[in-house]
Design goal:
Layout: H1 8-16, H2 25-35, H3 37-54, H4 56-59, E1 80-82, E2 88-101, E3 108-119, E4 121-131, E5 135-143, H5 162-198, H6 200-215, H7 218-227, H8 235-250, H9 252-265, H10 269-276, H11 281-289, H12 294-317, H13 329-333, H14 339-344, H15 350-372
Antiparallel strand pairs: 1-2, 2-3, 4-5
């Protein structure tokens, strides 16, 4: 059938609708990444987590160092909708916790005082703080009126709220990982770039250096480097010191991969054309060679962050990293070193669960990005 005999709407559709959709590489990667539901969920969960820990003082019910002397090692507060008389309430509430001495076990036990209910409220006044480091405020997201105390994750041996310290500790550990990763990423790009591009004696020196660092036992190396941090340093100085320790150890594997990539790419035609056009060697590496495997670098970053977090947690847990009064996931887990304490107060292990969730989320994100980096591969 000829076009002239077609209906007018069919002619318009034939002329205007494309036979295929043209997408950029970024669009192809994003479309493929969205199909990985677990990775997409992990991506949004990590964004939410970073947003929460940035505003940790607001989301925390109490201050990180606020002590409740009458609630030492108190179990998590039970949120209720049905009171002791069996009456249902639309608003959640808690009962006040009182500690009593168990005359059979001679252990302090916490029991609920059902004589008074304390309803949960949003935007309650509490301990003053500086939001984002410069905004004075005393408003917390959730809490109860005094004399009630809302302790959703319980307290430690000093009566400090676990949830509040967990949020602030997660902020320290998450950003220590990013800072250490940034330093290691720059070192890996630099040494791997010059080693793979120039070769010769420079390549020989860099490879022997990476082999030496990789041959050292990881944990003793961490301990030796962390021990160099002076005890009189402030928590902020220790923060940067531990990041440097993690960076010194973590750049070698990235440098090896970048070296191999550059060796395979430096003889390509477009690199030779750049040479003949008078492009500087620095511009050839940064503008022509490194973008050739940007997708790998993105995946490396997502998978290296949990390694940095685990490194900081391990060092702080051993007392060699971030020290009290600074709060991190590692320092929080120091309270769980006593087996007897963990047996009687299992909520002290909650920071360990946070470490597991963060590491798993980053691993799923890296897995999704690895699949999406090759958008032309069929699922």
């Amino acid at each position: 059938m000829e076009i002239n005999s077609m209906p007018q709407s069919a002619v318009v559709n034939l002329k205007t609708e494309p036979a295929y959709e043209i997408l950029s590489q970024r669009q192809l990667i994003w479309r493929k990444f969205k199909r990985h539901r677990v990775a997409l969920l992990s991506f949004y969960a990590l964004i939410a987590l970073y947003a929460i820990v940035l505003l940790a003082e607001f989301f925390a019910p109490h201050g990180a160092f606020e002590r409740h002397s009458s609630h030492l090692l108190s179990p998590p507060t039970t949120i209720r909708f049905v009171d002791a008389e069996g009456v249902f309430h639309l608003r959640p509430f808690i009962y006040r916790m009182d500690n009593e001495l168990n005359r059979q076990t001679f252990q302090r036990e916490y029991v609920e005082d059902t004589s008074e209910k304390f309803f949960l409220k949003f935007f309650v006044e509490g301990e003053p703080y500086k939001l984002l480091g410069f905004i004075d405020s005393n408003i917390h997201l959730i809490g109860v009126d005094e004399p009630g105390i809302f302790l959703p994750f319980g307290t430690d041996a000093l009566g400090r709220d676990i949830l509040s310290r967990l949020l602030l500790g997660s902020r320290t550990s998450l950003f220590v990982g990013l800072l250490g990763l940034a330093i290691g990423f720059v070192l890996g790009l630099f040494f791997g770039g010059i080693s793979g591009y120039y070769g010769g004696s420079i390549d020989l020196f860099v490879q022997r250096l990476t082999e030496f660092l990789q041959s050292l036992p990881t944990l003793p190396l961490w301990m030796a480097l962390a021990a160099l941090v002076p005890a009189e340093w402030t928590p902020i100085q220790v923060y940067f010191g531990i990041s440097s320790v993690l960076a010194i150890i973590g750049w070698t594997s990235l440098a090896r991969v970048i070296r191999g990539k550059l060796i395979s790419l430096r003889e390509e035609d477009y690199v030779m054309a750049a040479h003949l056009s008078g492009v500087s060697e620095r511009a050839i590496i940064t503008r022509h060679l490194l973008p050739g495997f940007t997708s790998y670098l993105i995946v490396y970053l997502t998978l290296a962050v949990p390694q940095m977090i685990l490194g900081e947690t391990a060092l702080s847990y051993l007392g060699l990293g971030i020290r009290a009064p600074a709060v991190s996931l590692g320092t929080l887990l120091q309270d769980a070193q006593n087996v007897q304490t963990v047996t009687l107060s299992p909520w002290l292990l909650i920071p360990g669960g946070m470490v597991i969730l963060i590491v798993v989320a980053f691993n799923f994100l890296g897995d999704g990005l690895r699949d999406a980096a090759d958008p032309y591969r069929h699922s």
